[in-house]
Design goal:
The chain has one domain: Rossmann fold (3-Layer(aba) Sandwich), CATH 3.40.50.720. 51% of the residues lie in helices and 13% in strands. The protein has a seven-stranded parallel β-sheet with strand order 3-2-1-4-5-6-7, sandwiched between helices. Helix 1 crosses helix 8, helix 3 packs parallel to helix 4 and helix 4 runs parallel beside helix 5. The radius of gyration is 17 Å and the shape is globular.
Length: 266
């Protein structure tokens, strides 16, 4: 009997990461859930099991290299293999012009958004090479479009996108993609609306504010479904690419496999 795939998902305690984990659960996947809050991870783990998968909660701060190594080691101890890593954990802080940005907050953004994926990828590489696995990095349109007032976020996502391209060149045994998840109704968007008025350009703040007021934000389940599909099925020819969650060759097969709605028992 074939062993179900094993996928590590960071930022899995809520929002987009939790949605990815739940979709994976519907396919019987074994999911290693990573975030800082064990209580929230355990709630997502219960959902994954209810949907048909297995899950282990691995509380960790991905900005810390030894913690990332422990995540990989514990995943291998629990499930004996790794077929994909979804690097989704991210922070948007600090929201500030460069001249006034807090140095420690700026550094922490790079540590979470760029170094965390580097650490997890580095430590998972032997297992991923053995399984001919996948690395799916949640990037952003901000990797290509500058947003004044969000320099750390933009710089870290640009770095993550280029890191993905390098992974594809250095390791032909694996498939590595970066994904634009769209503008998703998560805590990050709430923070932009709460704190962005003072640091973002007025038109940029109005854009984010208007998305919420006009129901223009995607629910996490929509891009989450695409990312879950990529973790399991991303074709080899996509390696190194920066893709969007709603590209038809991603969104349509994802919907065909997972369906349109996540259904949890009440």
């Amino acid at each position: 009997m074939k062993t179900p795939p094993v996928v590590v998902v960071t930022g899995a305690s809520k929002g987009l990461g939790a949605a990815v984990a739940r979709w994976l659960g519907t396919q019987g996947v074994y999911v290693a859930l990573v975030a800082r809050s064990k209580n929230l991870l355990d709630m997502v783990a219960n959902d994954v099991v209810q949907l048909g998968g297995q899950a282990v909660s691995l509380p960790a701060d991905v900005s810390v290299a030894p913690s990332c190594r422990q995540v990989i080691d514990k995943t291998l101890t629990q499930f004996h293999r790794i077929d994909a890593v979804v690097n989704n954990a991210a922070v948007v802080s600090p929201l500030a012009q460069i001249a006034s940005a807090d140095v420690n907050a700026w550094r922490y953004a790079i540590e979470v958004n760029l170094l965390g994926p580097f650490y997890l990828t580095k430590f998972a590489l032997p297992a991923l090479k053995a399984s001919h696995g996948r690395i799916i990095n949640t990037s952003s349109g901000a990797a290509h479009t500058p947003i004044p007032g969000a320099s750390a976020y933009c710089a870290s996502k640009a770095g993550l996108t280029h890191l993905t391209r390098i992974l594809a060149q250095e390791f032909p045994e694996i498939t590595a993609l970066s994904v634009r998840p769209g503008v998703v109704d998560t805590d990050m968007q709430f923070q932009l609306r709460r704190d962005g008025r003072q640091s973002l350009k007025p038109e940029q703040f109005a854009y984010y504010d208007g998305l919420k007021k006009n129901n223009g934000l995607e629910p996490p389940e929509v891009p989450g479904r695409s990312i879950a599909w990529l973790a399991l099925r991303a074709p080899r020819h996509m390696t190194g690419e920066f893709r969007s969650y709603d590209d038809p060759d991603i969104a349509e097969p994802a919907r065909a496999i997972f369906g349109s709605r996540l259904s949890l028992k009440s």
